[in-house]
Design a protein that fits this description.
Blueprint lengths: L11 E7 L2 E7 L5 H12 L6 E5 L2 E2 L16 E6 L15 H16 L1
Length: 113
């Protein structure tokens, strides 16, 4: 991104999800993933080596740009931390909103009928 002029209207928001939480990160499509990871490291107070970013089940390449990874504004990027008990990383965990809604409707129907 060095030498490139970036304007506020060029910026995009990424939704970074980890388990039950979501944070929004402002970045530019031409920024390298490592720059986004540095912002996330500050937010979560973690070293960059202790987490990964995944988009559509693919680990993002630190040296590639956001655009090169085909990530657009408001896309969901998953954050997984390194598992302290092994050398691996956590599995992606997120709440299935459709399932939660169906469960809620079933409980409501059972309570009223």
């Amino acid at each position: 991104m060095a030498g490139m002029a970036t304007l506020p209207q060029d910026s995009i928001h990424l939704r970074i999800k980890r388990r039950g939480s979501t944070v929004f990160v402002l970045c530019y499509p031409e920024q390298q993933v490592i720059a986004v990871k540095e912002k996330i490291a500050q937010i979560f107070k973690r070293d960059i080596s202790t987490f990964r970013l995944l988009y559509k089940d693919m680990i993002l390449d630190d040296d590639a740009s956001i655009r090169a990874q085909q990530i657009a504004s408001n896309d969901i990027v998953h954050l997984v931390f390194k598992d302290e008990k092994s050398d691996g990383f956590e599995k992606i965990e997120f709440e299935d909103l459709d399932k939660l809604h169906l469960d809620y409707e079933a409980k409501t129907k059972a309570a009223s009928g």
